[in-house]
Specification:
With about 250 residues, this protein is α+β, with helices and mostly antiparallel strands. It folds into 2 domains: about 5-115, Phosphorylase Kinase, domain 1 (2-Layer Sandwich), CATH 3.30.200.20; about 120-245, Transferase(Phosphotransferase), domain 1. It has 8 helices and 11 strands. The protein has helices spanning about 15-20, 25-30, 70-85, 120-125, 135-155, 190-210, 215-225, 235-245; strands at about 5-10, 35, 40-50, 50-60, 95-100, 105-115, 120, 155-160, 165-170, 175-180, 185-190. A 6-stranded antiparallel sheet has the order 1-5-6-4-3-2. Helix 5 (about 135-155) crosses helix 7 (about 215-225) and helix 6 crosses helix 8. The chain is globular, with a radius of gyration of 19 Å. It comes from Sinobacterium caligoides.
């Protein structure tokens, strides 16, 4: 069949929650304030039975990749679920589906269970900059973020959009906890392309820190990421490439 429809909801959802997301058509009929609007998708939230869900609706997919099963919808769905499979904290996918022509989604949606008591790292930078002066808080965030990035790169996976806005920070009694969201461009790479993409990821993260974090704080992150106490000649060359890349 050229055209096909697919819709799936987690069995763990309460029936009253499921009633809000019965089909792709019902999700597209929901009228809510849009939180984020892009060229291919839009995001809004919906609270049901005391739980908040974030719905990303893809109203368009572009490029050759969308005909090959590599649309942003397919990649985001795959990546968000994979993060949790390999032990990284990430928002949970509780619903997804698409209406497609062959492998190309004509429209699609992903439903994520909201992570309570969170703000993204960029929002914290803008609204609560004093947190970054708290050594204990900042160290906890840096250690976790460096470990996440290192683990992804160890698996030859690059995010390709590693802005601070795509990292959630949850407030808990045990300190800040990091969660990944919004990764519709991430893929695995090999050889020189992998090195190039790793540099891009690190430069993207560092771009948000420039002019805000001290050079010492930024270097501390790199040391944590590499798991080293001293820079080698290779590290210095790598850092020059990161710092000279513009975002």
């Amino acid at each position: 069949m050229l055209f096909y429809n697919k819709w799936s909801l987690s069995d763990e959802l309460d029936e009253r929650v499921k009633s809000q997301f019965l089909s792709l058509e019902s999700v597209f009929s929901l009228q809510r304030p849009i939180i984020s609007l892009g060229k291919q998708s839009e995001v809004f939230s919906l609270s049901v039975e005391g739980q908040t869900f974030y719905i990303k609706r893809y109203f368009k997919t572009k490029g050759l990749g969308s005909w090959l099963g590599l649309s942003r919808y397919h990649l985001e769905l795959k990546n968000q679920r994979w993060f949790r499979q390999i032990g990284l904290q990430a928002a949970e996918v509780v619903g997804f589906g698409e209406k497609s022509l062959c492998l190309k989604p004509l429209r699609a949606a992903i439903i994520l269970r909201g992570v309570p008591d969170t703000d993204d790292l960029m929002a914290l930078k803008m609204q609560q900059p004093q947190l970054f002066a708290d050594k204990r808080w900042y160290e906890a965030v840096s250690v976790q973020l460096a470990a996440i990035v290192a683990e992804l790169h160890r698996r030859r996976f690059c995010h390709n959009d590693f802005h601070w806005r795509n990292v959630l920070v949850q407030r808990t009694d045990k300190g800040p906890q990091l969660f990944l969201i919004d990764c519709p461009k991430g893929m695995r790479y090999f050889g020189p392309v992998l090195t190039y993409r790793i540099i891009k990821d690190l430069a993207c993260l560092d771009a948000s820190a420039r002019g805000f974090l001290s050079q010492t704080q930024r270097m501390r992150f790199y040391f944590l990421y590499r798991g080293i106490d001293r820079l080698t000649a290779r590290d210095k060359s790598f850092l020059r490439k990161i710092l000279h890349r513009d975002y």
